[in-house]
Amino acid sequence: MPNFRNPRAGRPHLRTVSITGVGSYVPAKVLSNADLESLVETTDEWITTRTGIRERRLAAPGEATSHMATEAARRALASAGIRAEEVDLIIVATITPDMQFPSTACLVQRNLGAVRAAAFDIEAACSGFVYALDIASHFVASHTYNTVLVIGAEKMSSVVDWNDRNTCVLFGDGAGAAVLQNRPNAHGLLTTCLGSDGGKASLLELPGGGSACPATADTVSRRLHFLRMDGKETFKNAVNAMVAAGQEALGRCGVTIADVKCIIPHQANQRILSAVAERLGAREDQVFVNVDRYGNTSAASVAIALDEAVAGGRIGRGDLVLLVVFGAGLTWGAALIEW
Ligand code: ACO
């Protein structure tokens, strides 16, 4: 087991915070690269070589973000061995809420029957799950709540412009969830490093439908309700930010990348994953990858990957796990966890 420093230790009034259960859900419908060839001018070869994505999942008609979030949450609660009534707080990270309000977290609370829980959403795009983990951890550490459910869930297919080949090939739908509690005699979440740069907000945005640009027939005809992205600039910023956040997390805990059992980066693009791994000095077998099967599921991405990594035996008790994320905002972050 690696030797590490716990930056959260030495504060006796705070508790440690562990992930005691994980779960995920992806819709059944698969959209392959071959299927996309009949929608926009693209090829399986272009998508595979530029992104590593082979297929993605699409929510069924009528299936909203809250439905996927609820299913992932049920699985996470089952894996933690707790009942919905025991949950104190639900945080949903999403950029594709069911509606402007009420929050998706409140809808999940209703669906689960988590009658004691407070609930709210946060929005940090693809970085949302790590932002939410950080927020949740403080509630547990400070003894405010004992059990917090953190969910990353997205129906990206509802905001993707299916006429724009630059973006529609990249995204998919799904949800992942984690239960945070104090586990006695465990370190759990060692540190989180968050960052943002609103100066680059326009690199990745969905301009229509908010208070700056309320929905009208004109905004619909100008396709302002779909996401837009400067892919090349996003790519460069993503690699730099994820590497810097990962290094900061490792440095804070006095460990090197070699001490980490499993690195779970935001699954945006295989080339981004490879560049991040190389610049962190990681071996290929340390990096968890499922972007080939799901594409970019935004806030759900690392949550789904974490669940699959645990289920597949890639992470065991005591292992160090590094999450690194990046998204619109710009936002980024890293979390180092003793599992
Ligand atoms: N099929 C075929 N050709 C395409 C497609 C497609 N699906 N998409 C773009 N092209 C074309 C372009 O039109 C361009 O053609 P041109 O040279 O005639 O103008 C050509 O391919 C090259 O396009 P580039 O933009 O140079 O391609 P690049 O190698 O940069 O790859 C990509 C594009 C995959 C989008 C890449 O930039 C990327 O992955 N960026 C990061 C995206 C990302 O991670 N976004 C999510 C961030 S997180 C969040 O919060 C949502």
Mean of residue pLDDT values? 96
Q: What is the CATH class of the largest domain? A: Alpha Beta
* Strand arrangement in the largest pleated sheet: 1-7-6-4-5
CATH topology of the largest domain: Peroxisomal Thiolase, Chain A, domain 1
Distance between the termini: 11 Å
Structural class: alpha/beta
Which architecture of the largest domain does the CATH hierarchy give at level 2? Answer: 3-Layer(aba) Sandwich
Largest sheet properties? 5 strands, mixed
How many strand elements? 13
**Uncertain ranges:** none
Beta-strand percentage?
15-25%
Attached small molecules: acetyl coenzyme *A
Report on this model:
This protein is α/β, with parallel strands linked by helices and 339 residues long. The protein is built from 11 helices and 13 strands. It starts with 17 loop residues before the first strand and ends with a strand. The site of acetyl coenzyme *A has 25 residues, from helix 2, helix 6, helix 8 and strand 12.
What are the defining features of this structure?
binds acetyl coenzyme *A, alpha/beta, Peroxisomal Thiolase, Chain A, domain 1, 339 residues, 13 strands, 4-stranded mixed sheet, globular, 2 domains, single chain
Condensed summary:
By secondary structure, this protein is of the alpha/beta class. It has eleven helices and 13 strands.
Topology:
Elements: E1 18-25, E2 29-32, H1 33-37, H2 44-51, E3 55-58, H3 65-80, E4 89-93, H4 104-112, E5 118-122, H5 128-141, E6 148-155, H6 165-168, E7 173-181, E8 189-196, E9 204-205, H7 217-221, E10 228-229, H8 231-252, E11 262-265, H9 270-280, H10 291-294, H11 301-311, E12 320-327, E13 331-338
Parallel strand pairs: 4-5, 4-6, 11-12
Antiparallel strand pairs: 1-7, 2-3, 6-7, 8-13, 9-10, 12-13
The structure holds acetyl coenzyme *A.
